TrEMBL record:
Residues 122-212 form the Acyl-CoA oxidase/dehydrogenase middle domain. Residues 230-371 form the Acyl-CoA dehydrogenase/oxidase C-terminal domain. Its cofactor is FAD. Belongs to the acyl-CoA dehydrogenase family. It comes from Nonomuraea marmarensis. InterPro entries: Acyl-CoA_DH_CS (IPR006089), Acyl-CoA_Oxase/DH_mid-dom (IPR006091), Acyl-CoA_Oxase/DH_mid-dom_sf (IPR046373), AcylCo_DH-like_C (IPR036250), AcylCo_DH/oxidase_C (IPR009075), AcylCoA_DH/ox_N (IPR013786), AcylCoA_DH/ox_N_sf (IPR037069), AcylCoA_DH/oxidase_NM_dom_sf (IPR009100). This is Acyl-CoA dehydrogenase family protein.
Length: 380
């Protein structure tokens, strides 16, 4: 199924994204969580607001947005609904990859449709037997005639139930290739994965590819191009978006907790007057600001084309995701029993936050990477 944007692409910034989220997302995020999907109407509104891929250049249908601003926009979406932010993240990864690594023909065919939200993208790397260990993927793409024959199974594909275009990583003779695979290609099968712990409306799926025949134009980049650079760059941008979404979760925890603590009275006092509660709120304020600054630093380095952005993004994501888990737990605590009920958003924030420590580089992999870099720098 495809979407048709009904309004021209808008220029988005943090303020307009916040207004969009407050009106169209925040009031309904718990419902999306309960029904396990983001409704088509909202996807259309995201398209009309120009939120799908505003970083693409104008000739590809985007608004040429810088990556600092993109981070701010994804923070706002993450503040409202991590499931929607997850859909945005994987779509961003696909649109960016097409723009950055695609041939002129691939860009012309896909980029404007991705910018308009007429085509939604999903990112297929993980497999039943390969997650952190990306080198263990077993999906194969074998050259056949002037095209490819794709076989394998991808798991945990965010937006897999909904997306129209899959960016699939597969083994080729002696390398790994990145392939653009339309959902409706014969041999593609989608098995929904529902009832996850968090980001429950992000429409995950297991995707199997059985003798899927692809043309030569499915392979990203010129012939002989390996997917290593594509993987590094695409995962880096996805990680940046997840870091932004995690900052949004901390901010949402702060806003929900401050509002609740101002009104809930215990022993004749508002919770907000109690020193132990004030300590929790002040830690949320401080970590939200610190996480936002780390994210902005990573974004500035991206905009400047500095390769050090990759480590800055690892650090931003590590800090923001662990802060999200810590503060979501405290937000539930501040709400007491209400925090465990479906009547307040903090239970959802708590479940969503945990996912942030697993996706786009788990916490353990982040620590290994950050420590490895520190060791290299110290022993130079
Ligand atoms: C909600 C959700 C959405 C997702 N969306 C996508 C998607 O759109 N596309 C996609 O391709 N994938 C997606 N994934 C998969 C995700 O990328 C993987 O879950 C992640 O890479 C971790 O892999 P794994 O789950 O196989 O864990 P494993 O790799 O099996 O790791 C298990 C545990 O061991 C730890 N570990 C691994 N290696 C080491 C080590 N060397 N030292 C110490 N500890 C280690 C890990 O940190 C983890 O805690 C999604 C996952 C979730 C939960």
């Amino acid at each position: 199924m495809t979407l048709t944007a009904t309004a021209p692409v808008q220029v988005v910034d943090k303020r307009s994204a916040r207004a969009f989220v407050d009106t169209h997302v925040m009031p309904y995020a718990d419902d999306y969580d309960r029904i396990g999907r983001v409704p088509e109407d909202l996807l259309r509104q995201v398209a009309a607001a120009g939120l799908w891929a505003p970083f693409l250049p104008a000739e590809s249908g985007g608004a040429g947005m810088d990556l600092v601003t993109l981070g701010e926009v994804h923070e706002e979406v993450g503040r409202g609904c991590s499931s929607l932010r997850s859909l945005l993240t994987v779509h961003t990864m696909v649109a960016w990859t097409v723009q950055r690594w695609g041939t002129p023909g691939q860009r012309e065919r896909w980029a404007p449709a991705l910018a308009a939200g007429d085509v939604l993208g999903a990112f297929c790397l993980s497999e039943p037997g390969a997650g952190s260990d990306t080198a263990a993927i077993t999906t194969t793409a074998v050259e056949r005639g002037d095209g490819w024959l794709l076989n394998g199974v991808k798991k945990w594909t965010t937006s897999g139930q909904r997306a129209d275009l899959f960016l699939v990583f597969a083994r080729t003779a002696g390398s790994i290739g990145a392939f653009l695979v339309p959902r409706n290609a014969p041999g593609v099968q989608v098995r929904p994965i529902d009832d996850m712990l968090g980001t429950r409306a992000s429409m995950l799926a297991e995707i199997s590819f059985q003798d899927v025949v692809l043309g030569p134009d499915a392979l990203l980049g010129p012939s002989g191009f390996t997917a290593g650079m594509v993987l590094t760059g695409t995962l880096d941008l996805g990680r940046y978006s997840v870091a932004a979404g995690s900052v949004g979760i901390v901010q949402a925890c702060l806003e929900a907790s401050a509002a609740y603590a101002a009104h809930r009275r215990v022993g004749g006092k508002a919770l907000a007057e109690l020193p132990l509660i004030q300590a929790k709120l002040s830690d949320m304020v401080t970590d939200a600001r610190a996480a936002r600054l780390l994210l902005a630093e990573a974004g500035r380095l991206k905009d400047a084309g500095e390769s050090s952005t990759i480590m800055a993004t690892w650090i931003a994501k590590y800090f923001a995701s662990t802060a999200a888990v810590r503060h979501a737990a405290e937000a539930v605590q501040i709400h007491g029993a209400n925090g465990c009920s479906p009547d307040y958003p903090v239970a959802r924030l708590y479940r969503d936050a945990k996912v942030m420590e697993i996706i786009e580089g788990s916490n353990e992999i982040q620590r290994i990477t950050i420590a490895g870099q520190a060791e290299r720098e110290m022993t130079r």
